[in-house]
Write a structure and sequence with these properties.
Layout lengths: L1 E4 L10 H10 L4 E7 L2 E9 L2 H19 L2 E11 L3 E2 L2 E2 L5 E10 L2 E9 L6 E11 L5 E11 L9 E10 L2 E8 L2 E5 L2 E6 L3 E12 L2 E10 H8 L6 E11 L4 E10 L7 E9 L1
Antiparallel strand pairs: 1-4, 2-3, 4-7, 4-19, 5-6, 7-8, 8-9, 9-10, 10-11, 11-12, 12-15, 13-14, 15-16, 16-17, 17-18, 18-19
Helix pairs in contact: 1-2
């Protein structure tokens, strides 16, 4: 993890101490002159909405300390998989090289996920954004993905979705929603997703004799639609994984996907990743 520290400190134009004094002085209907360090802000004959101003000051009093201690972080990984499997569906035959780059700033994460392909779609490029919610021991987040290919050059394959996640201890759950989507190609409207789709995942994990064990069950119309084209059919699959950290950065896992329907695939695949 790489972190860059931004300190504002004494050079901050709006000082917290000034906010405190200013907050106590704004009970007057008209503000004449406010002195801030060497800078004078002249507010001549200005009628101030007191409730809105007080609310603004309170918000700034909360935000400024966060800004002063804010950090930008970066993390990522490079992964090789024997088969690219997504939500129970094998994407193609053969291995794939994949990777993630993630920038974080407070509760906000912005990043991208990429994967090689061995067919007409040579590179999958999926940017995303997520926001961690302040829910204490219950870890929650919301965000959005854009699935795109060949660096956004193939519009006919690009779709977006929204997601929400929650986790508590060894248990976690995710909900993904893909709205109905189309795009314009000249005068023609091309339909990408004919109806809204969803996908739900529930996971549980534990550690046993140094190995990370997990089970994830997935269910929804997403995988069935991209197999059959029917947005009303639902698919289900179970993914069992056993992983091992070989070093601080290097890990491997064995994964077995079990189809619980007629649409997804029974498949065994290996994954090896290096995180940084």
């Amino acid at each position: 993890m790489i972190r860059i520290q931004f300190g504002i400190g004494h050079s901050l134009f709006l000082r917290i101490s000034w906010f405190s004094d200013f907050y106590n002085s704004i009970n007057h209907r008209t503000l004449r002159v406010v002195q801030l360090g060497a800078t004078s802000i002249h507010l001549m004959n200005m009628e101030v909405n007191m409730k809105k101003m007080k609310l603004l000051i309170l918000v700034l009093l909360v935000i400024v300390p966060v800004i002063e201690s804010a950090e930008i972080g970066f993390s990522g990984d490079v992964t090789v998989v024997s088969t690219y499997v997504f939500r129970g569906l094998k994407q193609f035959d053969g291995a794939a090289l994949q990777g993630t780059g993630d920038f974080s700033y407070g509760p906000v994460n912005v990043g991208f996920w990429v994967s090689s392909f061995n067919n007409a779609l040579s590179v999958e490029t999926d940017p995303y954004i997520s926001v961690t919610l302040p829910t204490g021991d219950l870890e929650t987040s919301v965000g959005a993905y854009l699935f795109s290919y060949d660096f956004f050059s193939k519009r006919e394959y690009s779709i977006y979705e929204f997601f929400a996640t929650a986790g508590y201890g060894a248990l976690s759950g995710s909900f993904y929603f893909t709205p109905k989507q189309d795009y314009k190609e000249g005068d023609e409207t091309v339909q990408l997703v004919s109806d809204a789709l969803y996908w739900v995942e529930l996971s549980a994990g534990t550690t046993f004799k140094g190995a990370d064990l997990s089970a994830t069950i997935g269910y929804g119309t997403f995988s069935a639609f991209f197999t059959t084209g029917d947005a009303e059919k639902a698919a289900a699959n179970l993914l069992l994984s056993a992983g091992k950290n070989l070093s601080e950065n290097l890990s491997v896992s064995w994964n077995w996907g079990i189809a619980l329907d007629d649409y997804t695939d029974n498949i065994f695949f290996l994954r090896a990743g290096y995180g940084f």
